[in-house]
Amino acid sequence: MFDTLIRDVRVLDGSGQAEYRASVALEGGRIAAIGELPGAQARHVVDGDGLALAPGFIDVHTHDDTNVIRTPGMLPKLSQGVTTVVVGNCGISASPVSLRGEPPDPMNLLGAREDFSYPSFADYTRAIEAAQPAVNVAALVGHTALRNNHMDRLDRSATRDEVLAMREQLREALAHGAIGLSTGLAYGSAIEADTEEVKLLAEALDEFGALYTTHLRSEFAAILEAMQEAFDIALHARVPVVVSHLKCAGAGNWGRTKEVLFKLENAGKMQRVGCDCYPYSASSSTLDLKQVTDEFDIIINWSAPHPDQAGRKLAEIAADWNVTLLEAARRLQPAGAVYHNMHEDDVRRVLSHPLTMVGSDGLPNDPKPHPRLWGAFPRVLGHYSRDAGLFPLNQAVHKMTGLSAARYGLAGRGLIREGYHADVVLFNPDTVIDRATFADPVQAAAGIEAVWVNGALSYLHGQPTGERAGRWLPRNGDLRASFAAASSPTL
Known about the structure:
Blueprint: E1 2-11, E2 20-27, E3 30-35, E4 42-47, E5 52-55, E6 57-59, H1 67-70, H2 75-78, E7 82-87, H3 121-131, E8 136-142, H4 143-150, H5 160-175, E9 180-184, H6 195-208, E10 211-215, H7 223-237, E11 241-243, H8 257-268, E12 273-277, E13 283-286, E14 298-303, H9 314-321, H10 325-332, E15 335-339, H11 344-351, E16 356-358, H12 372-387, H13 393-400, H14 402-407, E17 424-427, E18 448-453, E19 456-460, E20 463-464, H15 480-486
Helix pairs in contact: 4-5, 5-6, 6-7, 7-8, 9-10, 12-13
């Protein structure tokens, strides 16, 4: 007697191989059997006719660090079929953090001062276990968070002694299961960190076989130089590198993804490299004065001094106030914004590349978030795979499951295999689609029929069941071998 039996369903197993039809049985939090399974009985039987079964989606690029504890139901992710989130991206993480004042930009994207209560990484992992979130959680350590802990101010390079103190704190986190280090070198809180600072810090990754992920120092005109810096840091540390939300931002940069991807491929011949991307042509972050321009629309998500301006274009606000765009942006700060700074052709080129995983980069604490928070994964399945024909459904699923699990060392996840953890999502391939929009972003996707996390039915017919079966996922040994195996596509 199985716990759950999903009968006669299209199985997209996460490997990228062709789909097949089978019945899948879950028992004790694991995938117990796959096949025709004649005569099999279960406490809960699901008819899979007309539906597809995939491994639970793995969101490799999130900023859910405090939300997995404060709002453990994690509905924006669960409703998309996401069963695992990777937190701590872009150099910002909830731990290890000791604040002396308000969280510096962009750490304020993760929450308010009172939300940063994890001075050690072990404190954070204990808090996740106590919160029992609805999804699994793996975590990176943010470079900016470490700088905050050991520097009197962030607008300068760190001294050697400061970097060594950061490195020791990183080692402690890695020993407690962190999967790697992330940087956000484009932000004001880290842009003064020189390459040698990051190299010295990243040396700790080699000892543990961990990852280096980076929000590049530039995604604009200097993107190739920024990519080379990332490759140099990872090569120095002898670890894999993931370029976060790879894009060519800014109107003057549109069309350059051909040379950007060529550089990524060439680096992949000498070292372990990969990237993630979200399926939208607009980015979102804090309001950055360096990105203020009239070349594309900038929408204000939130503003501390002017909350009434949320949802409006920066250009409209500037016109109302009879000031320049830059002066309006200054008055709005601290604030968050959506930047319509990419070309759709570039998005499609990066998203369809064999080295690319899918990550949402959603900002759950924005009052009016970018729609990627609620819609990224169904958008890949419905809009880009089914409707636009950018890639077959089996490849779309691979980019969100098997590829991600292998790169991040999430053992026993990312594939539909007997004995693997029962993180699975049942969806309708004919109707699955994102419904979140820029005007109305807080909307669950259509076509996600059911989600199981570690065997527990957690989402059914558009509603959470109340089950919260997620777990803290520590790094699983040295990640270099699994990353290399995952990074050998036919280019």
